[in-house]
Design brief:
By secondary structure, this protein is an alpha/beta fold. Helices cover 21% and strands 21% of the residues. It has one domain: Spore Coat Polysaccharide Biosynthesis Protein SpsA, Chain A, CATH 3.90.550.40. It has a 7-stranded mixed sheet, sandwiched between helices. The N and C termini lie far apart (45 Å). The model has no long low-confidence stretch (mean pLDDT 90).
Length: 239
Amino acid sequence: MRLEKEVDIQDIVVGSHNRPDILVAVPTLGKVPIEFWVASSRLQYPINGKIRTHVAKGLEVGEARNSAVEYIMSMPKGDRPKWLFFLGDDMLPPWDGFVKLYEEAVKGDWDCLTGLYRMKQDGFPVFLTWRNDVIGRMIPGVHYKVGDVIDVDLTGLDFTLIKVSLLEKMTGPYFKTGPSLSRDVPNNTKYGGSENKTGIVLHTEDVWFYNKVKELGGRSGVATGIRVAHLDVSTGWIY
């Protein structure tokens, strides 16, 4: 790199490069399929990035995700990573999927950003893209063009970047799998919270988390140009 003008060496700020600092968290029951191992081994991270790893083994998925956040919060604030990245052990990402996700998250100043992947379900496995102002799911070609980065109120968490600064504003549990008392579910009219505050709500840990993001005014999105395959380990089907 050529400097625009001559400078004294003592005037150059050490560490002025904004180095990506990311904790990669892998929730897993233990053994992972060979397909995941190959895909995760090929996954590229930003050049000169500071990449740390947290493996949460043998925990229920909500507890596993909480353990990653609690690990971050146990660090002195100045030592914490800037981003938490969840990589599910049944995800088969393209080799450049994370780099593209990181670049989009930084460029768009997203609090949470996820790649595009489908539910594991027979019949017609839908993409995990829901927004409160859309009845049902968001449909490619109708509500967005594939390649767009879209705002959502609910999506998955298995290929997801989250700002640690957002997590620092939250109180735990950050993630929780139901059932929960209705009055305890973070308020998001469509995907949790209810006018009936005496009932019980069944919910997944992603519903709980994205409701908390919404309460804080955070922005959640899906980068629809980053397609991630979803492996059903029990059948071998890839969605």
